[in-house]
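Thread title: Can someone regenerate the structure for this chain?

I was given the following input by a collaborator and told the matching structure tokens would be attached. They weren't. Posting the sequence so someone can regenerate them.
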Amino acid sequence: MLDQQTLEKLTQMRLSAMGEEYRRQLESSDKNALSFEERFAMITDAQWVNRQNNRLKRLLNKANLRIQDACLEDLDYEPCRNLDRGAVARLADMIWLYESRNMIITGASGTGKTYLACAFGNAACRKGFKTRYYRVNRLLTDLNIGQGDGSYNKIIKELKKTDLLILDDWGLVPLDPASSRDLLEVIEDRYGYRSTVISAQLPVSKWHKLFEDSTVADAILDRLVHNAYRFELKGPTKRKKEQNRETKKTEQQTNISSPSPMGEGEAGNQHTSKPLPQKEVEKPPDL
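Best answer:
Regenerated them for you:
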């Protein structure tokens, strides 16, 4: 009776993981083999792990990463990609977020820029940092709409509180003065307090030409570029490589599942037939 009351109280206090572990111990035949301290530690650990997992799930959902399963452990370090394993390892602890440093990832289409950016975003979530992924055009559209429906300041405040902001597809289209000013508002509020990851096809040397207003361009690039870690990815497009791999896999499955053109009787005869006996070669007489 007392045990049931304890379980109900744990449920009312929203300590469901502790309740589940306590119930498991009550039903276990080995519960008397553990001391009270050991059992209580196991119950506490169950609730702690549950809350950590729920927090990570909330952070990942809020991050809205384009590639949800991207992680640093699965990166491809082929020499042709120009991806420095040592540099990734040094940044994997995410200490640079405490320093409000930025990251710039450039390279041709399909070289894995988005995957690398999302992998660092995933690592940030696992470290407990608030992360948010945006395509630049989508962010500018939301800010433009926000000026009309009154949500502009709310979006700016949320972005200011985000520990790591990932801006993908940077520089796909030129930026008019209005969009440039909106982008400057975001970058200015975050400069010196938060970190930003930029993913772009264009090299940094060509970014200035994206802005119609050169004054705003100087202000934005000065806050993004000079304290940023850089990755310049190279090599063939990974999308084509993955497509070829899937095509070969499909062809192999098709060949395996396709029926044999030979009839059952012929196939059976072929498998059960024995090799013809070879005629023994006579040895020449000894001279």
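Residues 72-238 form a domain with the Rossmann fold fold (CATH 3.40.50.300).
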